[in-house]
């Protein structure tokens, strides 16, 4: 039979087939004699050698691995391993009880050869198969020999390799623990590859959470740690390295490993482990603070188990020599780290000491605490404050009465009042919070509370926040009325102030993203947490009564502190949703009743102009009513409605589920009926009522009339006056109802038609003559004051929104046309052409209104992130088309402006003009595709916003191809064009001082005034076009798509100011001129700050400062001095070459002495510079 085996071993196919016939092969092994089996191993060893010689293998230098050249040789090796495995199964099946098994020398030679080879090969299948053989041998009752010892060592290596691989499981780690005793066979003193591999794999296991988080893994590592000094050194080094990098959760597992190792150590290895612990103590003191805290955490298990006698002995033995010396260190960081450890091991007394000496050692520890309170470093004081609080809380029962008193006096008099560091006070209050939870200690606060209650109004936010936590704990654990001892008047003022601060910070955060408003919701955790806790403290007993009494308390508090009540309604969390809804309903009912009273009727009085209520200036006038009584009423009821809004607001998913329940929905329908919201329309209270609608979780079916009113408002956005109302209330409401998609589609399609129309007519009517100049100044559609039918005045509605919108628009256009009609009735001849002209005019007017409506609507929705998915997902092609077309339109417009050198007619500059000179004014004005300032603003807003979100988010995520480089290139060309504009009469324009003119009256020459209007309109359009284009320039810079290092912005700034100078010369309206100048000046100031933030001035500062010089040359006296000073302070902080910048400021006037016509501006600016520089010098000397 064995001859059959030998024949099948020769070739791979037969060998594979033989290994698959498990039963047959086992019977063959059973029938073979020992000699025959030996011959099988000899023959198999020779055949294997043919397949694994050096000619059959290849060493990969790059990956340092050994690989088979041919797959058949690898398969032969796998068959050999399978053959051996079946033989081992045969031995197990035929093993006799209490009989040791031994292998013949040929089997051992073959097995050792495969063992050596599988280590060198980087073959997962070979290792897995061979590993099964190793584990199978371990199941046999082997006779002790060198071979069996090597097998057991290789079992450990295989299991370690298996655990460290990605396929390793908890079962493998359990097997490793089972065979941990095999470690005794490792000869640590003899340098071998197996020992090195074992050490490396054990060290690597400390990187694997699945290993060190497993209880069996921890046990195995702690056992291995004690086998020899070399493996202990490997594991310790790896643990120290990982402690610096890994999370505290991982360090917590390391704690258990080293603790178990020390606990089970004895003799020489105990000395080794304790030496390593001593090193960890040194690391926890001498390392930087953040790293030292990690090593303290690693030692934490010893500190928490110091009640154990052996642990206590170890702590004293290791810590006593280093603690007292390092507490007095000159390095404050070492003192800080030492105090942190001192807190955990206090009082560091020898457990074997006698009673008398014990008291002396305790006194020594207390004195160390008191001495450290004299430290000058705030961080060390913070650590000692935490230490004292910890000692009081943990050792309260063994501390004498005198020591308790002294410790509290130290905390209150020295650390709270004496040093007055915010971080120290915060730490003391946190310590008090922990004491308040301890029933054995908290009664002490009855005695000391009067000495510390002033902290609730501390200037530090964290101190105030933590003190409120303390008061709430004392209310909970001692007496619910404990908080009555606080001065609530001062607390109310502080909360009000902090609530204002919170809202201001929200505004500042939003302003930093003003261009696109692409910002996450503000989340200032510290101040929010304080306001939440403070609100809960004030309302601690406020809700412990029936609903009517709750409402009464709310109204009384609101009458005295309206802002405080708003804060409470927003941040308070100690009132459940159902209770909040009940309270909101009662307050809503009271509000409606009060507003219905005769004294308050003015708040719900309909305005004559139905859109006037939405106008910001109108609201501002109402807020600043001259009558203080009326003003107080307005504030009271508007604040009450805001409180109702806050109470209705859902705060988490659980509340959302409750709110969606059927009985809650029915409750909301009955309490918040549509009638009250209808009555508020076109009144002062409308915004506040509609604010509440946003958080009433009901669908549109309950508010059909409100829906129709909202549709009308969204279709009349072109009037401008209701933009704020739509932005703040109607659009969010429609979005909540899922009704915004219709308006998205209508307006985005209208925008697409408009941009296509502009693009297709770029080359038509490029030159404006006297016959068509009125089109340039035509902004009538954005200034209509006509009225449309409104829900507040009429109960009838058209069937469709589109139809009603068209009717109101046409009616409004006819009314406006009639008002603006200047021709006399006697000169007006009615013919067939006149009717056609009227129809064309109405058609054009309606198209303009639709275009403006679309621009305003889309400029609102693009600023809010929650609407982006609807926009970009469904209309990405239209947006992409808009970006590309408008990019080209911008380039076209700037090219038309640049096509001819800019010449301001001399007749407009000179004061002395006769009719002949005026008639010779034949300079043509270029007609631009966009000639309305509001349109330019809205188009540019959409362009920049679409470009920003398309480039950065949507188009990239969805792999939509777009030639961004070409678009960026066109933007760069526009910048170059603006830089290159030449003013023929530049000197004459610059020298003309528009503000020094005494005569701003309108000339009697009608023809001259008409020309002025044309040029004022034309120049104004150019200025606004460039100013809004700056948004795109800034975005291109922020994307780093524009190489600002080689871009000259000096002429860019100069040309903007020169256009303004032209406007100033012509304009007769000084107020509008000043407003335009300040708008330009402030916009360019922010642009220069952008350049500064993107390192425009980093290199060649002397040359780059020319742009700043140009900016200040055109800085007039009308600019507030404070604005200039604030600007210079920011610039001075940001410039790295401060001396160069200071020299520029100091020599500004000197460098511009030759410009005599700007002498007054330069002199005024230099005085401000000198004042700033003198303040800097005083600060340095101080």
Automatic annotation (TrEMBL):
One of its GO terms (biological process) is mitotic sister chromatid segregation. It holds the Pfam family Condensin2nSMC. InterPro entries: ARM-like, ARM-type_fold, Condensin2_G2. GO terms for cellular component: condensin complex; nucleus. This is Condensin-2 complex subunit G2, putative.
